[in-house]
Amino acid sequence: MTWRRLWLRLIRRTFSAYLGYPLVVVISTAIFLMSLALMQGVKTQLSVYSQRIHSNFDNFIPNVLFVLLGIILVFAFFFIVYFHRLLLRRESPALGLLSTLGMAPSSRYALVCWESVWLGGIGIALGLALGIVLLPLFLMIASVMLLLPERVTISLHASTLVTTAMLFGILILLEGIFSAWQVGRRWPRQLLAATRTVEVVRRPQAKQAILGILSLVTAYSLAGLIHPWVLHHITPSLAVILWPALMVAIVVLCCLGTYWLIAESLRWWIRRNTTARGYDAVGLVSRARLAARLQSHAGSGTLIAALVAAVVGTASMLVSTQVQAFTHALQQNPVTVEFVTQGIDSQKLDQVTNQFVAMLQQKGFGPVRSIRYQTVLAAAPLQGIDERGLAAYQEDGGWYGDRIRGVTLMSRSAYLALVQEIQRTHGRRAGTFPTVPVLRPGQTFAIRTDMGTKATVPLSTQDLERTETTRWLTPGHTYPVYPVDLTEPAPEPSILANLPSLQLSIVGAGATPGAIVDSFGVNQTFFIVDDQTFATFATQAATISPALVATYNGLFYDRWQQSALVITRWLDQQEPPVGANLGFSSLPTQIQEITRYISALLFTLGLFAILSLLAAGAVIVFKLTEHVSADTRQVATLRQLGIGVRDIQRILRREAFTLLLAPFVPGLLHATFALLDWFGTMRSAGFEPDPLTQLTAAEVIGAIGFAMLVIVFVLSSIVTHHYGRQLWVNAQRRGLQLAG
Amino acid sequence: MTTLVHVDHLQKIYHARGGVAHTALAGVSFTLDAGTFVAVMGPSGCGKTTLLNLIAGLDTPTAGSITLKGQRLDTLSEAARAQLRRTVLGFVFQDYNLLDPLTVEENVLLPLTLEHTVGKADLARVHEVLTQLGLFEYRQRFPFELSGGQQQRVAIARAIVHRPLLLLADEPTGNLDSGSSRMVLETFAGLHATEQTTVFMVTHDPFAASYAERVLLMKDGQLYAELRRGTDERAVFYQRVIDALSSLEGALA
What we know:
Shape of chain A: elongated
Number of strands of chain A: 11
Strand order of the largest sheet of chain B: 6-7-8-3-9-10
Helix content of chain B: 25-40%
Oligomer: heterodimer
Order of helices and strands of chain B: EEEHEEHEHHHEHEHEEH
Number of helices of chain A: 18
């Protein structure tokens, strides 16, 4: 029999106490292995994929996954070191006893090292096995979440296994050696003294309690008012220094404020409440204990609040950015998918459209509604035409841009049908479109697009916008409109002289934030006319140049977002997918790109959040259980004083719930102000976040807040149960009476 | 009689946070002969446990020296001090310090395993000690299944299993009722009488101290007085200890 065998017996008999450390190694190793395999799989997959379609995303996602691996390693390191420290703290009395009994320092050193490597080694082996088992599921989830072009194939190379095993092996060995050195250099008396944990409770300091609240108020004021303003309202050279400096100041103030809020303000409030509410036994004990615990949890609470703020703030920023980008893409290109031809080859257009509709319906994205509409490119002089006619506006084949404007003509019925479908398919993201009244021949309703306005602009006696471009949109005035494409060189003077024209009287005007149809050309003004006038003008324009008339087949269906990937692949596979004179809406691919970027970041953030949550939970739970020994005696005393078991459970539950919740509340507040800072910075840079984006960000914070509340409630119940059991077992071992 | 321990002008100063210094021992000197039973008494914070820890080599003195079995502790490496603790010393603590997951037998076996790989002879020795202390039938039990007095006797068994020259006991009866205390003290007295084990016991209990041959009274980190039992009956010596303590308390007041 050797001391090693006795120590092994000790581990075997109290294995549950030793479970945390190897379990952490198992989970860390498995997550790292799966992530490494994912990164390698994605790299391979994207290298094949990018041979067909090149995308910036191909470089982006491996970089994101690389960062993710870094985050996992940092967390793994934190968890492994933290749990090993907890284990050593638990073992400290036994190590102290062995030293007192004469264990040589070298043996003590070897024991700690050997135990770390032994438990860690088992953890690594099990972690690798778990990683291999869970890998297919992990890759499947990751493929869906990262919107990868094809599902990542399971390719677990020996190098992945060896890298993971070696990395964690080195980590554990280093941690073992460092811990052993730390334990080895301590005097036996110090190790023995670690058995007695005395919780010294300070009285809350009013000065620091006020300082805490002041720090938070200052930080929030800086974030809400000054920080966003700085970026674009002072000289760039100063802004480059001041903006990050203010950011650091806000973070530091938030951390200090949170610490003092938990350690002082909250405790002060609880203690004040204790006496204000009278001397109810359970309340008295509960609040006194809580005040003491909050003091020792302030440091970890601040860290958790910072993590919560980082995760929630980033998530809401990412989601709101996605909404903003979606909205922008939709407004620039509102029709889900559209095929367009500049000419009269509508037969080919229909052929391609039908083929595509069939594919969409076969893939389950249908029913697909198809709308056909036409537009005519035209030009309208800003001032009255002189005797030279349109020739006066052109020189050397070009056009004078400040005196003549390009317009797009569209029939009222086509406009109404289109708007109805856009709003039906895209809902509140589609923006708002001006209401066009019934028009008589010779009347028009002018709509300016891409105006940066949030709502339609009604007809008024004032100018639509105080610029040269819009001054001519004066209601009641009549303007001539000619079938001319201003993006093309000017036609021969003889043709110009004989151009047909329309005299259109403006009966109303409005503006919309984005395009009405796919912005085919550069014309940003739409003249809506009655159907008869449009048909006549389109026929005349087609005789001059078929390219002046564009025929669209716009497709609308509900699951348009999910179809992006399929559309891209379909386009990739067709040879050629559309004819030379046919165009295709870029909206699905834009949406796909946005979604892929944001999903990749959210995936990383999600994993980071899960790891943070695990770390936060572990820290709180183990900080709670640190006091189990002192608590057993306290609880036994409370029982002797006549406090019931249920009341004690209530005290413990309330304590766990408050301790778990305490960091989340300031964390969510920080996230909200971080978001306000973000919106402020966007505004300062000239990008006004639309109401939907702001609403979505608020919804994200609300949803995460609610989810956290549920998690905290469930976790506190588990902790109470676990802690209660530990108390009871401890009491039994010490011969203290708790039950009954 | 040979000198087992020689303590010479021993000083220990603890530095707390904020630079506050606390003098636990302020120049203590005495010798401890082999085969004697010595108790150290004094009010809380007078430096009794610090003195014990220093003699055991569990901590380092700020000044002064301790010579144990002819070897100055401050000149030894930690490995050599550990070797001394393993072979020369035995420890009994106030709160027993038994390892809960190990059985009584395994707890007692522990010091032997630190010295060498134990065999049947060692196990027989463990059984002998357990029988001597009336614990043989409990050898397969875990410490938490025993009473406080029984646990302290297991701690004593662990402390004497390797036949130490010096048994150090820190408030061994502090957590025990009077019956259990008497039993533990009888055990010490028996060991001292039969095995000639030197016992150095820190206590605040005059009754426990009355079992010793010599009582050192400490105050403010210094030796205040010394009582020798001589030929007195234990009851008489007990009274003398009480009187000395009263005088010490008077001096403190």
